[in-house]
Specification:
The protein has eleven helices and 15 strands. By secondary structure, it is an alpha/beta fold.
């Protein structure tokens, strides 16, 4: 019986290893290692981005990921470039070059003149059209983006590690399209051709997708992207789970680090791209207040351990990864409950979190081959598993928590003055999110005994970025006939999770 029991345990252990995935035959660290910063954003000063570059050098990084906004570079017209923006970028690239850091540039965001946004939203490109999300729509002509990307590559390409085309086109927050794969593929193909014409040696990356979205990648291959990118870029976030966790998330393997990346690799190989390398242009965890607002939140200590272990998994299993950029180097803000702003390894004031030291230590660890252990085994420098937790090579137990935690939109209320053309809207949010609102009209069915009223959505809708807590908005009404109406709204957070739709009624007695 003892022999049988030993064989059973051995068989179980082998199955566990298979579930996690075998180690790569020749384990290796990714050649390019760094973190994301935002030096060209309006609020970033030269003093700040120089300090960020110095922190990266101190950590042993050799790349920095930044974004260049086409909507800012050519805000007014095609080929008419903003001198202040070019000068700021020149300054940044000079500082990065002096420190031996090569930028991975994400090039995206459409200027109003080139945007395919609806005319009503563009409003003649008057006012702050970027606040109306006009820049999130793909350009009407892909060649306009390609020409601008080629200019960027020609000017700064000698200092760049790669250029990445767009930012998360599989997420409607950044890419407004009802057919994202069909609309993104021409952008990548056109940009690839244009960049290669001026910088043949500069790697062109795509599709810059968030999560290991295999379905989106398959759709892109169907649209003919094969042969139009040098490296496949993605952001294989793992929400708030341990990177070694091999249990299947309720939303599928796209949301799993150790299951999603091999899935993407399988798709690449199936389409003849097995020789191309993968670039993790974003990867990280948020130290927002854990246990409450979002399943993405972890403690600062856990954030540190997870970031280091994510690098070790790459070294031990995935020798096809070219680059890893942690998102972010520094917090974007100071709200401890805000998941997006707390993803930095440094606090907003540059003071280090435990994650920064873990980042620095794991880069040093990966710079030399391990002296102990075998590929695929946890490094001896990894923290020992805590009592009651699963071992690294065994599948972690599913916590039973929902994979997606919806933002909550509540206390929706409206008021309207007689004959006014607008509604005053009030509502509360559980976290920062984008709020979508529209108006529905009640229509009475004829000769009806049950459900005699149906609600028809009106054409006008608005979207607004809103903060956590109480918010106010104004909804401008089109010409409405007298009758019963209701305002409908929902919130979408930074991970594309939607709240339940809330509605509140009002009447129109006099047409506005």
């Amino acid at each position: 019986m003892i022999v049988v029991r030993v064989l059973q345990l051995l068989f179980c252990f082998v199955l566990c290893l298979a579930a996690v995935g075998p180690a790569t035959a020749s384990a290796s660290a990714p050649p390019l290692r760094g973190a994301a910063t935002h030096p060209l954003w309006g609020g970033s000063t030269e003093e700040q981005f120089v300090a960020e570059l110095d922190r990266l050098v101190d950590a042993g990084a050799n790349v920095v990921r930044i974004d260049i906004g086409w909507s800012t570079l050519e805000q007014d017209a095609k080929g008419q470039r903003a001198e202040w923006y070019v000068k700021k970028a020149d300054t940044f690239f000079a500082h990065a070059r002096a420190r031996g850091l090569r930028p991975i540039v994400t090039f995206w965001s459409t200027p109003c003149w080139a945007s395919s946004a609806p005319d009503g939203l563009k409003d003649g490109c008057q006012g702050a059209w970027w606040d109306r999300d006009v820049d999130a729509y793909p350009p009407s002509d892909p060649d306009d983006l390609a020409d601008a990307a080629a200019w960027v590559a020609d000017r700064w390409g000698q200092d760049m590690a790669a250029i990445e085309i767009w930012n998360e086109p599989n997420y409607d927050y950044f890419f407004r399209s009802s057919t994202p794969a069909a609309d993104y593929a021409p952008l990548l193909k056109s940009a690839y051709t244009a960049v290669k014409a001026v910088r043949p040696g500069l790697p062109v990356l795509g599709p810059a997708m968030v999560m290991s979205d295999g379905n989106f990648l398959e759709a892109l291959y169907d649209e003919g992207i094969a042969g139009h990118f040098d490296g496949l870029s993605l952001r294989p976030f793992n929400q708030g789970r341990d990177p070694y966790d091999s249990s299947m998330p309720p939303s599928g393997r796209a949301y799993s680090y150790v299951l999603g990346v091999p899935w993407i690799r399988e798709i690449m190989e199936a389409h003849g791209d097995g020789s191309k390398r993968m670039w993790f242009t974003e990867l990280g965890w948020s130290s927002c207040a854990p246990g409450g607002i979002s399943i993405w939140c972890v403690t600062e200590e856990t954030q540190a351990r997870y970031i280091a272990d994510a690098f070790r998994i790459i070294r031990d299993r995935w020798d096809f990864v070219e680059a890893v950029s942690v998102y972010n180097l520094r917090n974007k803000g100071t709200n401890p409950d805000d998941r997006e702003t707390q993803m930095g390894m440094l606090h907003r004031d540059f003071s280090p979190k435990p994650a920064y030291n873990a980042f620095r230590n794991v880069i040093a660890e990966l710079a030399a081959p391990p002296e102990d252990g075998e590929p695929g085994q946890p490094s001896l420098t990894s923290p020992a598993p805590q009592p009651g937790t699963s071992q690294r090579l065994l599948p972690a137990l599913d916590s039973g928590m929902p994979d997606r935690v919806r933002p909550a939109l509540s206390r929706l209320a409206v008021s309207r003055r007689p004959a006014s053309r607008s509604l005053a809207v009030r509502y509360r949010l559980s976290e920062p999110a984008r709020v979508t609102m529209w108006v529905e009209r009640a229509v009475q069915r004829r000769r009806c005994r049950q459900r005699c009223v149906r609600w028809i959505a009106q054409r006008t809708s608005i979207q607004r970025r809103a903060r956590r807590g109480a918010n106010h908005a104004r909804f401008v009404l089109a010409a409405l006939r007298p009758g019963r109406y209701r305002l409908a709204a929902y919130a979408t957070d930074g991970a594309a999770n939607r709240s339940a739709v809330r509605r509140t009624g009002f009447r129109v007695s006099i047409s506005p």
